[in-house]
Amino acid sequence: MKYRIIPSAVLALILTVPDLAAQMPEWKFFRDREGNRYYLDLNGKIFITDDITHAYRAVSPEGIDYYKNSGLRLLKEHRKAEALSMLKSIMALPCDNERICAAQRESSAAINEMKKREGTRFPVYEKQASLLFFKTGRNHYLTDDVLMYSLRIPFRTVVIRRSLREMVDYMHTGLMCGIKKDDNTGGNYDMLIGIDAERFRGRISGLAELEKNWSNNLGYDGALRRELERTDSGVMYVFESRSEPYFSGLERICLNGNSGYCIRIVTSRSKNAGNEADMMEIIRGFSFIRSERKTGN
To answer: Which of 246, 244, 248, 250 is nearest to 281 (CA)?
Structure first.
């Protein structure tokens, strides 16, 4: 089925004039199970009237039509990195019904067309859109398809901030998310998780060098650390603050080829007992998309 999107300002004008709206009985207001709002006509064409804000939202099977049409509309609005991130997130969903498979075909076609149209500019947008964010059931997935990691979180997840920094021989992405164990819509989170990922052009000698690098980057935080486990490619710590504000959490540092990762998950000390097992499940849900050999000089 082919969909088209008309400018929201035009449709908003039509719908705010009672006489015109009354003359369009074929328009049906629809709200999907995620609360996304759009209109459908009798031919099945979808019209999105809400402004699409610059915020990451987890693409889901339940809202697949909304997210696909949002991605296509973002392309028309020349918000290319946002559009690409959303379309790639659609592509990452399991193709377990025809609606999802159809949305993935349209998303793939739009990405391929964008790739041809942008030419040498496309890799720039691809790096800006490296974060894929989607969910199935209660599981939320955060995937970086440039720095090659994935994280599964079995609770509601909100992307608070993402950053990208790149130089000739270095690339860094930072991600901060809030985690909610219930369905409240307020700004309070049960846990916060941060993921810093780096890619170096030169060779990293081993985990000890990576730990030293992260210590220099992050600086002294005054927390008391205790090592939980260590391998050749990773180490995990439990930590807690020694002064107010009192917090505790887990920290995992991983090495994969010439890429290094620091994952921290933190909660208030008063909630630590109730979140301890969940934090361990989340931090163990971090994985590499592809294991890499060391390269470089």
So the answer is: 250
